[in-house]
Amino acid sequence: MDHLTPAERSQLMSRVRGKDTAPERLVRSLVHRLGYRYRLHVRDMPGRPDLVLPRFRAVILVHGCFWHQHHCPAGDRIPKTRVDYWRAKLEGNVRRDARQRRELKRLGWRVLVIWECEAERHSPERLARRIIRFLESDGTPRGSCPPPTT
After folding, report:
1. pTM for the predicted model, two decimal places
2. Cys staple from 74: which of 65, 130, 132, 144, with CB 3.0 to 4.6 Å?
3. In terms of DSSP bridges, do strands 39-40 and 51-53 run parallel, antiparallel, or are they unpaired?
4. Could you give the domains of the chain?
């Protein structure tokens, strides 16, 4: 049973942010300091990605561990009340995320997911190396020749 009244629960849930979260702001700041420029929450793209880097044909998604069910202590839990509701809600989020990533890739975008726990716990240097590796790689295996053009 929920220990909050419906009005209290509504007030609490209204403070849950969908964008401009602390982990997202941290990643945006880091990407900007690295010299990359991006667009935010592009409406006409599947899932309205957190950061879109058109020059690199890349998107960065910053996922909250609980809401997107990351396999870490924060993501591997279900609230004790209304378990059926929460399980369906969170599983639906995971399915939607996978569908949106597939659609972005189908449209030719490369996708990097950064989890809330990574943004908060890893050093900025480690996170920066991961972002640079992602943006500067073109998906072609190193040492291979490009396919011939006809």
Report:
1. 0.81
2. 65
3. antiparallel
4. 18-134 (3.40.960.10)
